Amino acid sequence: MSEASLLFSRFHLKGLELKNRITMAPMFLGYANADGTTSPVLLEHYQKMAASGAALIVVENISVDPTGLVSPFTLSVHDDRFIPGLAELAGTIKGERALSFVQINHAGRYAFMPEKMAPSPIETWGVVPREMTGEDVDMVIRAFQAGARRVKEAGFDGVELHGGTGYLLVQFLSGRTNLRTDGYGGPLINRMRFPLEVVDAVMDEVGSDFPVGYRFLADEWLPDGLHPDETAPFARELEKRGVAYLSVMAGTYDSFFIPEYLDKERDEGYMVGFAAEIKRAVPKTPIITAGRIQSTETARMILEQEHADLIGLARVLFADPEWPKKAQGIVHSPIVVCEPTCSLCMKRVMKGRPAFCSQWPKEQRDKIRLLGPDDDEEEEAGL
Ligand SMILES: Cc1cc2nc3c(=O)[nH]c(=O)nc-3n(C[C@H](O)[C@H](O)[C@H](O)COP(=O)(O)O)c2cc1C
Asked: Looking at residue 312, which CATH number applies to its domain?
């Protein structure tokens, strides 16, 4: 099969047909209103992403409970009142003939507010979270369950559970962040328990006809963190439960800013090795891989060598929403690449500011700048 035809071949996922192998990996941008509702700029962004030609759009992490917000500008799904806004978002994406999933999340120790809860009281960004009680655990499981139900009611095609980036589901899985001595801590089998209970509760709620994907952390990229020796067995448990896909990633906020990670993440396809390793562990589960897949050539190689089934684009699609059309030869100009040394989008969201891309034209960047307090001119000028 030719380079383009494999990338643009159809793919079936739990009863859904993807028109090609390109997906938008979730990317939190800080465009939501401070009350967790959708804003015009957020709808406009997703409309553009859906119009890109990608088959499946996974909406950035949205919060299942106010205790788990990543930032004040995170979308929320902790109450039925959010359903109409989310329905508009689902409709916007589907209106462009893309499939729509939403990633649901609890940030645990990485929540933005000063009082946080986590599996264990481990200092995080200068704050010690309180250890979650049994009631907290039950409350969060119910929150994921209700969040998934609302996602389904809003008309999305599926839901993704955020088991990446070091958020709550990973905090329980990892022996670095889970020091509990009850049935949720200790050996791997106990550390898997909370994320698996979340998966079971969500699947029970939405039923077998509604796809549940999983953002999957294959490796924390820290010497004392999770590695495939523990994450591959966890993937097998997810496969047994029939998750729709694993969207494989590596690294957490504890590793994202260390020099080795920053170095690796400049390379094209820097997380593909992990995707391939997890794919070997769970051959029946579709695998999405992301991580600077800047060129059609890299995407083709990944699919051809069966390292993954689907390609995930986050910053890459943000930098060039015409990537799929350029790859398909519908638009004839070079792909605008995400600058490997930049990280402006990430730096901005880490500062609580709405993200934009250094590759965008000035007027487009200024439009986003106007949304919030800004003193980033210097930072941008230094790029
Ligand atoms: C600003 C920013 C926000 C992100 N937000 C999320 C998110 O909400 N959920 C998630 O699973 N991954 C998130 N990611 C990770 C991306 O989905 C993706 O795995 C990573 O950026 C590598 O793909 P890329 O090189 O195409 O960006 C984010 C990444 C960036 C840079």
From this structure: 3.20.20.70
